Fold this protein.
Amino acid sequence: MKFLKPSLFALLVVGFVACKKDDDSTSSCTQSDWVGTYEGTTDCGGTSEDVIVTITASGSDAIVIEYETATLTTTYDPITPTDCDLNSSGTDSGITIKVDAALDGDKLTLEETISGGGVDFTCNLTATRK
């Protein structure tokens, strides 16, 4: 009987551990998940504006991001996201532009940093798929 109680306890513990719910928090996005039209706001250096973001497919994996406010239209050359994240940067004529974006379901966040040549500012954009 002394052996049976610890064995039964060990069996129950193993059963509970084996039945633990899997972690489904890891997200995976494909090109088609990014494609669409989003509406939201952007804050550039303390100035907030409404924004419309249009993301289209380019080739088999890349996307083209275009966003438009009342005062500005910006289009990025094709960028290939890594799952639900996008990170890209480039330098031309001493000006560096860095873009970090994330997709969480229908919510898009994007941070654009421009620096060099006497310019230094960051825009934060949050938008939801229409």
Observations:
- The chain has a mean pLDDT of 85.
